[in-house]
Amino acid sequence: MTVDLTQFHGAFFEESFEAIDSMEAALLKLDAGAPDQELINTIFRVAHSIKGGSATFGFGEIASFTHSLETLLDELRSGSMQVTLATSDLLLKSVDVMRAMLRCVQAQQPIDAQRVSDLQFDLELMIARKTAVAAAASPGAAAGASRAQAPATAEPRASRWRIAFRPYPQLFARGIDPLRMLRELSALGALQVRAELADVPRFADLDPRSCYLGWSLELNGSVTHGDIAQVFEWAEGDCALQIELLDTPMQEPPVAVATQPVASSAEPAAAGAKPTADAPQLGAHDSGSIRVNVEKIDELMNTVGELVITQSMLSQLGASIDGPGAAKLRAGLAQLERNMRELQESVMRVRMLPINVVFSRFPRMVRDLAQRLGKQIELRLTGEQTELDKTVLEKIGDPLVHLLRNSIDHGIELPDARLAAGKSPTGVVHMDACHRGGNIAVEVRDDGGGLNRDRILAKARERGLVGPHDVLTDEQIYELVFMPGFSTADQPTDVSGRGVGMDVVRRNVMELGGQIELRSEPGKGSKCVITLPLTLAIVEGQSVAVGTETYIIPLISMVESMQLRSTSVSRVAGRGEVFLFRGYYLPIVRLHELFGVQPRTRDLDEGLVVVAEGESHQRIGLFVDDLLSQQQVVIKSLEANYGYVEGVSGATILGDGSVALILDIPEIIRALSVRAAA
Amino acid sequence: MTGVDALQAQLAHLLGRRLVTLDVSRLKRIDTAGMQLLAAFVRERAMHDRSVQWRGESAALSMAAQLLGLSAVLGSSKQPPGAAARDGHTP
User: Fold this and answer.
1) Which tops the pLDDT comparison, A34 or B19?
2) In this complex, is the C-beta atom of A2 within 8 Å of any C-beta atom belonging to chain B?
3) Measured between beta carbons, which residues in chain B are less than 8 angstroms from residue A172?
4) ipTM of the complex
5) Is residue B86 within 8 Å of residue B7, measured between CB atoms?
6) Which of A203, A321, A367, B20 has an alpha carbon within 20 to 30 A of A209's alpha carbon?
7) The model scores a pTM over 0.80
8) Average pLDDT over residues A380-399
């Protein structure tokens, strides 16, 4: 029976990418000189499991590459090789290559073979150098290495093995190089090699991509059958292999013979000989979690949303019913409401992931950037365990990368400049995430030079964004940074400074229903705070009434509500009504006019004004009939279910079954200023 | 595997020459496919009683020859086994 393995590809890629991330994180923590053994084990396990997976799925190139990587890691693990800066760099490069290969295979695109083979060669060179040194130093070293590979089994005795290795022609095409295997074998003990050239055709008839060579080998060393089989594991199915014990030492199980192809018989043996450390660790990794497709969770979420609506319908109905069973019914409905809330929260939690998923890629980025720019930078990450919705998480990565790059490139000064300013030569970039109310705040802070107020202002004047004699507050100046195409960098670097920056960051954050705030102190550094809702599926809103309609204003946009006296309202030609609010004149937007509905009242004295805030602290006053209640509403996409409506970000279904529109305040303000400008 | 086709074409040109010297001093890496090609080339020359001279030294080549058991085949010309080689650059 054959099993269609492609169905597992998705899971393999997902797991592999995660594993590579954790490998990278471990590598970055690895100190040259005094490495933490547990970290090396972690790194080794990742390489090992990716090797296994890719071989199973027939991704020969990845398997072959990770095999070389694993060999090097094994040397590090057994302590026969030291962790140096060069090894760390090489391993980090390997991480990049592995990631790139997986991406290519996933997208079914060709792998950059040159890059892979170059790096693989470097890996092998590093191993070969070590092996050469060790072999010269002490003949026992090789045996030591083999012991390190198989600590689980009983100490193998010195034995003599005869190995017949006859690759099939396609071996090269699978990305497998016998040279590598023979090198590994030679590390296990004294190896005698005899090449069989009988099948090699005449030069003119030779296809250079086919393997015609074969080998008869004799290996003397303290190795088990499993050790040898493991070396040939990757040629499984692509060669004929015979492993035969020549000398039977005492107490060793008599003759272990594997017949070709290696696969079936040798594999379990090899697996048995693998370091036992794998088993419990893998178990720990899997502890009680399962992988679920996000679509399924969204479906669940949707259904729960519908249930909440049904439940509130029932509650309203229950409140109006009288009769003998009414009290009992209401008690039951109250219980239902509590349970519903819990259910909703549980489902929401399923979608929550720690922000570490995003944070974890930053140490590497900072390391590389700092190296490239010649700066000394320490990255501090705190609050990595703060959880937020997966959708938000996916979209917050890029803005954060941008802020971080800005801090490193523009914020932190070169070590000399820092010393001259009386600071430590190492700059600190601090990234912190925490919960604030129903929101999450992510802060990027650096102790660099801060924003150059005068330069920003000069640049803005140069571009005509600010009049030559306008006086701006610091806040207004920092606000300029968010203008499209604004960059003060004299020479845009490839790191940042092309001016496609902060405006995009702000737009991304706004799209997530969040806000961004920039603070800076000359010479001391700058700070950027992004405030985001925990989820995009539910919004905390204030419902307001206009005539018979109900609208929802997201609480994050709400500043205040008040009753205005019509005497405090002024009329400005072409701009409609304005009123004074905390020293600023705000335009009044009458919701009934905006949406063309019949209001209960048009008299400002009878209705209420809700002050709402959009981008860049722009505020407006929304005139409504009345405030209703504050509630969490489940957002339903209006575009998906109906069509785009200006000024509306979505809709929700209320307890009575009616539909309420959720207002998009920034959008309303934008539309308003466009109209005013026209 | 990278470059074996080119190498084969280059070597094919040299096959009939009376004297062939391969400069391997710049050879930094070689895989089994390349070694196989070299071995076939040297053997083919030997069949016609022609040798291959090696110039320079390459650690990568020596190591590969030793591990693959091809030192004897490649070193059948003047050089001792182990100091054998590839590179199509030199006629």
Assistant:
1) B19
2) no
3) 1, 32-33
4) 0.84
5) yes
6) B20
7) no
8) 85
